[in-house]
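dumping this here before i forget
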Amino acid sequence: MFLHYIRRRMQKMIVLTLILLAVSGVYSDSHSLRYYYTGVSTPGYGIPDFSIVGYLDDQYVELYSSDTGKTGPVASWMQGKESPEHWERESRIDRENEAVFRRELLIWNKRFNHTDGFHFVQVMTSCELRDDGGTGGYEEFRYDGEKFMDLDVQTGSFTPIMNEAQIIAYRWNRPDVRMGERYKVYLENKCIDLLKRFLEHGREVLERRVQPQVKVSGQEKGDTMKLHCQVYGFHPRAVDVKWMKNGEDEVHSYETTHVLPNPDGTYQIRVSAEVTPKKDDRYSCYVDHSSLKRPLHVKWERAQNALLTAITTAGVIILVIIVLTGAGFMIYKKNKTRYTAASASDASSDSNPSVTP
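structure:
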């Protein structure tokens, strides 16, 4: 039971990180540098007690782990681009961060009345360099996946989201501590400097443009139709996909997947909608991406869908006829062989009658 609880917590932690990574702009060439600090209350279970993972946009670039006590580059295009002194300095800073994080985690566990069991805290810091030259920053805190505090970058103060965080925010905002102001200075200065440097290292990878491929399909279910738009093979990650009716009205999507990575470094997404089409209704999948000169409108045609279904059905019928014809021929041939053998046996019996005493 306890192991099941641990797995659920770990899955929630992983899913949360993926969701946070999925947040990005659609059209702009802005870039962001994000660090995810994660600490767990109970050691073991195949994950480090404390880790810091760095992402430049959607590229995994940097890692610190309590298992090694060292910070280093991850992306291949980051290898050898920063000096050994840089990584030694970052390792020393991150070991200090680990010590602070361990102390704070004990305090947060008490605030949430958790004195034992598996719990985790995640902190996400992010700075952004916009395409117009402006900058921005963000920081939030989560306990067991639930957001409980964030940083107001404008004022350099922490804002509690949950009641349990009020004492923590008050302590960090005290005039003799002013931790929020230190985070504010980091986001506006060092984080932006690192972002610019890392961006130069990986500009060729980060700014490549690969146009999306689009496939539309439909599934009839009574009077309704489920439309699916599969968009795949695009880079960068940001994309806008939606179903349109008669080229003007946006159709509400009942299912949208997150933008997911492909093994080749590109991305994919599927957007579905459920509609009740009328005779003159026309539906199309709208796709906008930075690699395109203008958005795509890929039409779904009911006639094509019906034709495809008819062809598929006809193919199945022809296949069944071929199988049945072949089976009938084999049965006929087998019966003919038996008939010939039986006739020969009867002729032999007539020429050599048995003698009864």
